[in-house]
Amino acid sequence: MRFKTRSRSRETLLRLAAYGTILIALVLTLFPVYWIAANSFKFDIDIFAVPPEWVPRNPTLKHYEQAFIERPFLRYALNSFLVAVGTTVISVTFGTMAGYALARFTYPWQWRKHVSFWILSTRMMPPIVSIIPLYLFFNYFDLLNTKAALIIAYTAFNLPFATWMMKSYFQDLPVELEEAAIVDGDTRWGAFLHVALPLARPGLAATAIFCLIISWNEFLLALIITLTEQSQTLPIGIAGRVTQYTTYWGEISAAGFMACVPIVIFAFIVQKHLVRGLSLGALKG
Amino acid sequence: MKGKSAASLAIGGGLERWAERRLRYLMLAPAVLILLALTIFPSLYMFYAAVHRISPNPDLPWQFVGAANFARLFSDGQFQAALRNTAIFTVVAVSVEFLLGLGLALLLDKYIRRMTFLKTVLMIPMMLPPIAVAITWKLIYEPQFGVLNEIMYRLGLPPQAWAGDVDLAMFSIIVADVWQWTPFIFLLMLAGLASLPVEPYEAAELDGASSWRQFWDLTIPFLKPVIAIALLLRVMDALRLFDLVFILTGGGPADRTKVLSLYIYQVAYRFADPGYAAAISLFVLFVTIVLSTWFMKRMRLVE
pTM for this one? Predict the structure, then answer.
């Protein structure tokens, strides 16, 4: 947006108002994150203090000790990690292949259009809808309480997303480079592997990031499919500390904060891909 | 299938040429087969379950009841409350997120173009586990020691029960959702703004068009595809809201925040009536697909 230039003083005033608004947005964005971090370092009695302690006066690592030594939060985190990585590898591998096929090949009977639309439409299915059949299905095959079941379930909604994103990336790449490789003696598959895939690396990164975040955070399916410590993920572990009788605020804050940290660090490392990825991929449909 | 290796000239060559000719199907096949298994099968199974009465006792056979489970939808007050709550939540939350996200993106695009770091900070909420978000807001809303009531007190306003108050519970959920998902709209709009062409604006300047006119006649039409995608994704997600409600209110007080996902969960697991839960799920699926398809056609998102 480039606005018409106005008088100097009015421009300065607008600029100040804009900075003010952005500052307020920053405070509102960060305060809840700060608050969970601050509470994770307070003793229980200080969490319940009225008026609240804005800065922990008496900081402690007690809740981290509870969460990670006495309780199995490391196990939950490891489960989350394995499930997220498994889902991402499967979804991105097959999604990339399908996305490439839909972007580059022609099919009889308008297949391309129908298959694209159908794949997109599977993403619309709310997880709660597929939960009952999936539950019965996993029960039948003795997969309840396994990480494999979670990976299968998460693949159902990450694969359409990955296909859709990668399709739009490949559509943006010029097809001539692959044609040149084939003229030079490479196979069709080779052209995909050696030419198209390396060029689509930013898209691949963005797609993988989103699959990782979605699987790391998922709650509802994990709540129903897993009941044992061996298979439960971090979100379930955290929710388990909100019980009928009491809520273990300190422990929850410590675990919740630890669940956020890897994602946020990761986001800063890959921020370039994140913005670029979305601006190229998701926007074009 | 490395391509030019010498070994492939013998027997492998025939197989390889076969694979090469069918590459268009082979590359598509894994994704299509996985998705068929994971969506068509559950949908059919769900339809089968929806026309049966299923006892919580797994040894008892399913009893065919025809459309009875669907007929129940019309007389089920809790279902209608859930439908109304989901509609209210979706419309209000997505509208507010859209206006705030677009506004913020316009401000940043005009005044702080190069600050990637600042943009990433503003996007933190959408990356956090929704469950951690739900618990953070539960702590903030807590009536006795919560920080929100402390702020109300400092401002000379009466404290509230927030998530526990009949009139404020849905508002509280919407605020938490807006906090988490405005950044998503913001990110998409920023990306859209970054790709605007410069020339039409220069022409508009020459014609003396006001910035307001430029916004309506240039920016909004250019952003239309991005706006459509952002709204579509947010509405699809809002229709399946679960985590926030599960932790913040459990659907209460007085069913004011009971949304469809939570109701299906309760019917299936607490009331142990999977047949009826399947019927409600099919209803939700039907509404989601009809709404999304209509919207995508209208916005010309599919050719």
Answer: 0.88
Tell me the H-state helices in chain A.
8-40, 44-47, 62-65, 73-104, 111-122, 127-140, 147-172, 176-183, 188-191, 197-199, 201-217, 220-225, 234-239, 249-269, 271-280
Chain A hits for B129, CB-CB cut-off 8 Å, are 216-217, 219, 234-235, 238, 256, 259-260, 263
ipTM computed for the complex: 0.85
Q: Count the neighbouring beta carbons within 10 Å of the beta carbon of residue B7.
A: 9
d(CA B188, nearest CA chain A) in Å: 7
Instruction: Report yes or no: A125 at the B interface, CB cutoff 8 Å.
Output: yes
Strands (E) across chain B are located at: 52-53, 63-64
Contact A242 B106 (CB under 8 A): no
| Residue B167, min C-alpha distance to chain A (Å) | 23
A121 contacts in chain B (CB < 8 Å): 289, 292-293
Per-residue tens of pLDDT for chain A, all 285 residues:
445 555 678 888 888 988 999 999 999 999 999 999 999 999 988 888 878 888 888 899 999 998 888 888 899 999 999 999 999 999 999 999 999 999 888 888 888 888 888 887 777 777 777 777 888 888 888 999 999 999 999 998 899 989 988 888 888 888 888 889 988 888 888 899 999 999 888 788 888 888 888 899 899 999 989 988 889 999 999 888 887 778 888 988 998 888 888 888 877 777 766 666 555 554 444
Identify all chain B residues contacting A152, using CB atoms and an 8 Å cutoff: 38
